[in-house]
Amino acid sequence: MPFTNIRGVKLRYEIVGNKGPLTTLVTGGRRGYDEFLPLAEKLAERGFRVLLHDRRNTGASDILMAADEVEEAVWADDMFVLLSELGEVPAFIGGSSAGARTALFFALRHPDAVRGLLLLRVTGGAFAAQRLPENYYDQFIRAAEAGGMDGVCATPEYAERIAANPENEKRLRSMSAEQFIDIQTRLRDLFVAGSGLPVFGVTEAELNSIDKPAIIIPGNDRVHDSRVGRTVHGMIPDSELHPLPIEDSDEPVIPFVEWGAYEPEIADTFADFMRRHAA
Question: What are phi and psi of 113, to 5 degrees?
Fold first, then answer.
């Protein structure tokens, strides 16, 4: 898989498919892009190309930490530069969970580069607002407080990123624990500051301002509450809602891989949407 340097960070990426309009698919959490390969292959079979990439600080891409803005804003700007350098703007912009938030930030910051939005498992609400800061930031702050950067590197999440890109260990160990804690604390505070909004970090007025078509497939667990997807549908003017034939669950999080049986329907839904809005 190729790598390219984007704004001082080496990003791993791959384009699945060799013909048709291009869409991005951005994974949730801090996971690499591999979990979206099966869905990307299904979209390629339906005549589309799919850009997959590991965002900075995820997967096999470089770790380079800062806390000037929420992470989704930084990821959106990275993706815009990546698409521009590949000569692929405008494009359809899609993602799940944190990837859906990244897609929304992309539409707000780079509207001329968007053909349409493909939004899966949009996050918001009180339960997610309590759970995600712990998953994204607090557990690693505690690891640094207890064991310094040795403790951070030993966590399963950062050990995985080091295994995928050994240079990341040098980057992490070049930071002091105090620097790491400061950055993670500021990122957490930025995230929490936007946690009361319809989508984390995105206001109702901003959702109302999006003038690109969008298709929304809601989630069905407590972090990806289906009501959030419906709310976003009501706030983006030119949007469509496609609920899957699944029941809402009390599970905190249902991993995306457990949606495997619904990938053909997701691919059909996205492909139909993109065909109608490709011009």
Answer: -95, 10
Fold of 3-124+197-277: Rossmann fold (3.40.50)
Note the pLDDT of residue 1.
67
Q: pLDDT band at 279, cuts 50/70/90?
A: confident
Beta strands in 112-243 (DSSP E): 114-120, 214-217, 239-241
CA nearest neighbour of 55 among 127, 111, 106: 106
Paired tokens of 22:
């291009």
Amino acid at the residue 61: S
**CA gap 121, 224 in Å, rounded:** 5
Please, which residues have CB within 8 angstroms of residue 207's CB and are 6 or more apart in sequence? 104, 198, 199, 232, 235, 236
- Rounded Cα–Cα distance for residues 134 and 94 (Å): 25
pTM of the model as a whole: 0.97
Mean pLDDT across the stretch 249-260?
Answer: 95
pLDDT tens by residue, 34-77: 999 999 999 999 999 999 999 999 999 999 999 999 999 999 99
Q: Which two tokens stand for residue 202?
A: 């995105």
Axis-axis angle for helices 156-164, 139-154 (nearest 10): 40
- 114-120 and 3-6 beta bridge pairing: unpaired
Contacts 24+ apart (CB under 8 A), 134-142: 135/29, 136/29, 136/30, 136/187, 136/188, 136/191, 137/184, 137/185, 137/187, 137/188, 137/191, 138/188, 140/180, 140/184, 141/181, 141/184, 141/185, 141/188
Q: In the chain, count of helices (H) and strands (E)?
A: 11, 8
Q: What token pair was written down for 235?
A: 């706030």
**Ranges of H-type helices in 165-203:** 167-173, 177-193
Which residues are CB-neighbours of 278 under 8 A, at least 6 positions away? Answer: 21, 115
Q: Residue ranges per domain, the chain?
A: 3-124+197-277, 129-191
